[in-house]
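Structure in, sequence out. Go:
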């Protein structure tokens, strides 16, 4: 599937979760609920997907944990913060590079309307 179609489905599911739960909960709650909604739509969704961090030929002992990897190609990083920061955007871009994904979404659920807290990324 192309990025716009998958991301559109993820955004629709995020809106559904936010409509039912509202802002102010922990990121882990939103992750579980969003994964539930995505799987109900028939999308392949891995939660807390670990990605090995390597530097040149050196495999480091620490791994990244991507909140959601949808259809093996879309990194979804979730936040529940007052404001998204440039650091959050950099985190998504780094996760995309490390996972070999060309596309990503950053979703902040701690907003009045979740659409206000969504950023899309394409490498």
């Amino acid at each position: 599937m192309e990025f716009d179609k998958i991301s559109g489905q993820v955004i629709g599911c995020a809106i559904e979760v936010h409509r039912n739960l509202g802002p102010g909960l922990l990121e882990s709650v939103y992750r579980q609920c969003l994964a539930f909604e995505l799987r109900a739509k028939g999308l392949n969704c891995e939660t807390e997907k670990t990605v090995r961090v390597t530097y040149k030929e050196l495999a480091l002992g620490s791994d990244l944990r991507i909140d959601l990897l949808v259809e093996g190609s879309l990194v979804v990083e979730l936040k529940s913060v007052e404001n998204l920061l440039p650091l959050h955007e950099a985190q998504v871009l780094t996760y995309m590079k490390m996972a070999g994904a060309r596309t990503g979404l950053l979703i902040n659920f701690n907003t009045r309307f979740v659409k206000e807290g969504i950023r899309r990324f394409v490498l």
